[in-house]
Amino acid sequence: MEIFRWVVDLGSFSRAADRLDLSKATVTAHVASLENRLGIKLLNRTTRRLALTDDGAAYLDHVRRVLADVEETETTLTAGRSTPHGVLHVNLLPALGRQFVIPALPRFAAQYPSLRVVALLDDRRVDLVAEGVDAALRVGSLQDSSLVARRLYEDRFVAVASPDYLALHGAPQTPADLAAHQCLGLWSATRGGVIEWAFEKDGRRTTVVPGGRLSMNDAEALIDAAVAGAGIVMMIELLTRRWIASGALQPVLEDWRPGDTTPISLVYPQNRHLSAKVRAFADFVAGLFPRRRGN
């Protein structure tokens, strides 16, 4: 199973052989033996590439869970329980990951030399169990009750635009004024559209669906577009703080509180609760964010 997993992850029998310090013939023979025992074809092979079959993809999901459980069991039964080791797969939101986590990962790797980190930057809300991911950084309320969440920070949204844009189009005074502006929307594949903006003032709540000509599925790209003068964007303050400090972006609608605070959390499957590597990563990531703000 482990050989098969490495062949898929590295995309090559040769690279898997090098990684496992085995001969290519041995790796090939093990995968062939696995296919024969299961009675299914796991991989389609050509001279240039290999790809999972449908059965292979389904089997890989089970393999990842089995190997994770084996590693967890061995960790629990040995002194390694207190020493993070093995492979840690983490899913990071691209914007938060690049700005807060990725710059610090070399320090984390140096602290735990027996641990190899695979960071997957993806806005998609991955299925941690099915895809073999140990932990994920998420913004917003936790919807999957099968996951454990460690809250790292409470943030607010802020609507911002560049000084050039505001000089040309003026600043909105109420959420209703946004209908006359280019509002840059964050596209959600899950929702099949842009995420609405929420505002509150004097106990009154109103929502706006961004109606600008541009929408994107990446928070950093939206901020870059706003800095370039493309329009108004609503984003969590952590991601806009440095741009506001530099004067490249200015808050608008400051009299209207953009909805409730939203949590930034590290989530992981319940069966990873005692994992030394997940616990170490959670402690490390928690220290990367500013002191948690209140409501």
Question: What is the total tally of β strands?
Answer: 15
Cα distance, first to last residue? 48 Å
Runs in which pLDDT lies below 50 for 5 or more consecutive residues are: none
- Give the overall silhouette: elongated
What does this structure look like?
With 295 residues, the chain is of the alpha/beta class. 37% of the residues lie in helices and 25% in strands. It has 10 helices and 15 strands. Helix 1 (2-10) crosses helix 2 and helix 2 crosses helix 3.
Task: Fill in the keyword field for this structure.
alpha/beta; five-stranded mixed beta sheet; 295 residues; single chain; 15 strands; 10 helices
SSE layout and pairing:
Blueprint: H1 2-10, H2 13-20, H3 24-38, E1 43-45, E2 50-52, H4 54-77, E3 86-92, H5 94-101, H6 105-111, E4 115-121, E5 135-139, E6 147-155, E7 157-161, H7 163-169, E8 183-188, E9 193-194, E10 197-201, E11 204-208, E12 215-216, H8 219-227, E13 232-236, H9 237-246, E14 250-252, E15 262-269, H10 276-286
Parallel strand pairs: 3-4, 3-5, 8-12, 8-13
Antiparallel strand pairs: 1-2, 5-15, 6-15, 7-13, 7-14, 8-9, 10-11
Helix pairs in contact: 1-2, 2-3
Summarize the structure.
This protein is of the alpha/beta class and 295 residues long.
